[in-house]
Amino acid sequence: MALGAAARDAGLVPRFDSADWPPGFEPAFERLLSELADGAAQHDRDGTFPVEAFPKLVALGVPRLTAPHSHGGWNLDLTRARRVVERLGAADPSVALVTVWQLLFLAELAREDHGWPEAARRAVLESVRDQGAWINAVNVEPELGTPARGGLPATRAVRSGPGSWRLNGRKIYATGIPVLRWILLSVTLDDDKGQRSGIVLVDARQPGVRVEETWDHIGLRASGSHDVHFEDVEIPADFVVSDGPSSRPLYDARRQGWACVLVASLYNGIARAARDWLLNYLNHRTPSGLGAPLATLPRFQTAVGQIELQRETSDRLLDDIAAAIDTGTEAEQRKAQAFAPLLKHLVTSNAIAITNAALELTGNPGHSRHNPLERHHRDALTGRIHTPQADFALLNAGRAALVAAAPPASPSNA
C-alpha cells in the first residue's frame, strides 16, 4: 500500500527528520485512535480483522516508526514506541498487537549488529518504506507448541539446490496474517549438514502460502491470528535469517527486553481504557435510593484506590525499564533486560486484576456487551499467553536468585 499524494498533502506523513513528534502526527494519531475505539466492539463481536485500520496507520508512518533513518524510518526508541503501543492498546488491542511485532522487528533491523543477511534486510526495509509492508514472526505449531520451550519444529525447510530451500509445514496463531507481507518462521533446516533449528523469512505472497481462518478466541478476537500452511514454498538461500547455533541468536536479551515492554504496554493500555470507563461510570451512576453518584461511597473509593495502585505501579515500571534499556549503562541495560519477563508478568497480571475488579464493582452493566468493560477483561486475559509465560519468567528469576545466594562450594577433601 503505497503512500498517496493526498495523504502527504494532508500532512499525515511524518518527515522523520526530528527527534520529536513531527508536525501533524499527534492530532492525526488521536483521530485514528478514536476511529479504532469506535469500531473495536463490532470487530470483537464478529471476530473480524480491522483491515481498514492498516492503510491509515501506513499513512501516518506507523509501520516505519522504529525503522532506521537510512530507509525512511524514525529509529524510534523503546520509550516512545511503547507509548504508541499503549495508546493503540487502549483503542483497539488487536491492532496494537500487530503493531507490537512490526515495531519490534523494525527496531531489530535498525541495529548495527542485526545479524540478518543483507538481501533479506533490504527486502523488508524497502517494502516497509515504499509499500507500508507489515512483518511478524510465526512460531507456534499444533504438536510442538511454542519453540521457546525447546524442540525442533515440524515445519521443515529442505535444501533444494545451491540457491534455495523448499518449505513445508503448518503454523498456528499467525497474528495479523490478513495484512502481513513478511513472515519470520521458525523451522527445522535439513541439508547435508544435518537437521537443526533455524529461522527463514517468507514472502507471504509466495505461491504455496495458504491461510486457514481458525482464530476464535475469548480475547483479541480481531487479531486475525489464523493458521498458515506452507506447501512447497521456495525460500532463497539469503532469506535464511538464522542457521542453527552458529548464528547470532535472533531472540537475544535486547529483543526480549523490547518484546516484553511492548507487549506489557499493550495490556497496560487495555487496563487504562477499563479504568477510565469505570471512573466515568461511577461518577455518573446515581441510584435513586442513594441520591448521589456511586463515586461518593467509601467502598468504591477504596476499590478505585487499589486500581490506582496497580496502574501507577505498572506505569512507573514500564517507564523505568524502557528508559534503562534506551539510555542506561551496559550494566543497567542488562539488569533491565533480565527483569523484563517479570515486568511483562506483573503488568499483565495488574491489567487482569484491574479489569476484574471493575467488573465486580459494576455488576450487570459491566458484564453487558453493550459496554466495553467485559471486552477489556477478555482482552486482558490474553496477556497470559504471550511468551514468556508466567511460570517461565518466575522459574528463571527464582533460579537466578537462588544461585546468586548459594554458599560457595566446600573445598574438596580429595
UniProtKB/TrEMBL annotation:
Which intervals hold domain Acyl-CoA oxidase/dehydrogenase middle?
141-233
Flavoprotein as a keyword? yes
Q: Which InterPro entries match?
A: Acyl-CoA_DH_C, Acyl-CoA_Oxase/DH_mid-dom, Acyl-CoA_Oxase/DH_mid-dom_sf, AcylCo_DH-like_C, AcylCoA_DH/ox_N, AcylCoA_DH/ox_N_sf, AcylCoA_DH/oxidase_NM_dom_sf, Mito_Isobutyryl-CoADH
Domain named Acyl-CoA dehydrogenase/oxidase N-terminal: residues:
34-101
Q: Which UniProt keywords apply?
A: Flavoprotein, Oxidoreductase
User: Residue limits of the Acyl-CoA dehydrogenase C-terminal domain?
Assistant: 265-387
Tell me yes or no: is Ribosomal protein among this UniProt entry's keywords.
no
Q: What is this protein called?
A: Acyl-CoA/acyl-ACP dehydrogenase
